[in-house]
Amino acid sequence: MTAITEHHVVYAGDKKINYLAAGPVNGPLILFIHGWPGTAITWKAQIDAFAALGFRAIAPDMPGYGKSTARRVVEDYSQEALVEGMMALLAGTGHHVGIWVGHDWGAGVTSSVARQHPEAVKALINLCVPYHTIELGWDGFLPLVNREIYPADEYEFGQWDYMRNWEENFEKTIQWCDQDPAGLCKAFLQRTSQPSNRFAPLGLVRKNGWLGGIPKPPAVDATGPPILPADVFDSFAADMQRTGFWPGTAYYLNHERNAEYNGKAPSGGRLKQPVLFVHALWDTVCDTKTSRLVEPMREFCSNLTEVTVEAGHWVQFEKPGYVNAALFRFIVDELPSEWPGFWDSGYTKKKLVL
């Protein structure tokens, strides 16, 4: 198994991004950007797989998480500030361009990087959250809610009600989360089954509270095994215990700043690079199957590939083999020159007509 090493970059004075790396330093660069909540180690299945093939695989603790700077400053978690950190991370790897893979808020960040610095993006791969949505603030995704499931007069914010709850009740909700960060993370990371309907319980958070309004998160021993390997989960849980939920959740408090920043993207935000989007079939929050959430991506990406995996929101944890295979095929099909060894392997092909 390829060794995973730990590194960091310092930028903007005294901010730090901690990251994990594996694979040959000069191999094609692929960066894995986690969402809420998460840390670098949660990408271990992808780091191992890609490094073993000869990629240089990088996964940061995003600002607000793990060993990266986690100040209680809301502006630190705007897309503009996060992109600044990602550009520092890229420079720290010794590369100037890479394949960017993002999940959840990580997909918002990779989308922002692609919008603002297309020269740094060889290809964009987003899981669950499409390009041209969350990085644009409320207007990027709220109008795309399926109003047959969430009538506007009853569910103004649709399945995104929990996001509005962060804006209205941030400190109170953080206090609830921080009663047991490890227990809450384990409750989130349970295996998903096919939903009986497409209504997301997170559409009722302001009415009922988190997890139906229980007084505190479930204890670690109150839920089943997590979908992450035990050692990976334990490391992730320790990371969340260290920072608490405040810094990483402040990503949700910057919608207006994000809209202003990404509204000024070069080329109007249209992408020419290859883009892969992974649908999680059973994801009822980032619902890309019955809502219009994917429509802007299809309009703004000229070279788009889509694949669907039967899993919930944590698709790369539930079905790592399927997700990795989708990424491998996409790179081989769309970016063969980025496949390790392409340029020096002497690989040739001949067809003999009989």
List the helices and strands and how they pair.
Elements: E1 5-11, E2 15-22, E3 29-33, H1 44-53, E4 56-60, H2 79-92, E5 98-103, H3 105-116, E6 121-127, H4 161-168, H5 170-177, H6 181-188, H7 205-208, H8 230-243, H9 246-249, H10 255-262, E7 275-280, H11 295-300, E8 304-309, H12 315-318, H13 320-334
Parallel strand pairs: 3-4, 3-5, 5-6, 6-7, 7-8
Antiparallel strand pairs: 1-2, 2-4
Helix pairs in contact: 2-3, 6-8
GO molecular function, one term: hydrolase activity
Domain AB hydrolase-1: 28-320
Pfam family, one: Abhydrolase_1
Percent strand equals 5-15%
Strand order of the largest sheet: 1-2-4-3-5-6-7-8
Enter the CATH topology name.
Rossmann fold
> CATH architecture, please?
3-Layer(aba) Sandwich
What would the principal axes of the Cα set say about the shape?
globular
Question: For the report, how would you describe the main beta sheet?
Answer: 8 strands, mixed
Helix/strand-derived category reads alpha/beta
CATH class: Alpha Beta
List low-confidence stretches.
Answer: none
**Helix and strand element order:** EEEHEHEHEHHHHHHHEHEHH
Rg over CA atoms, rounded to whole Å, is: 20 Å
How many helices? Answer: 13
The helix content is 25-40%
Measured between the Cα atoms of the first and last residue, the distance is 43 Å
Q: Mean of residue pLDDT?
A: 96
The number of domains: 1
The total count of strands amounts to 8
**Which superfamily, in CATH terms, is the homologous superfamily?**
Alpha/Beta hydrolase fold, catalytic domain
Family: Belongs to the AB hydrolase superfamily. Epoxide hydrolase family.
Pfam family, one: Abhydrolase_1
Keywords: Hydrolase
Organism: Heterodermia speciosa
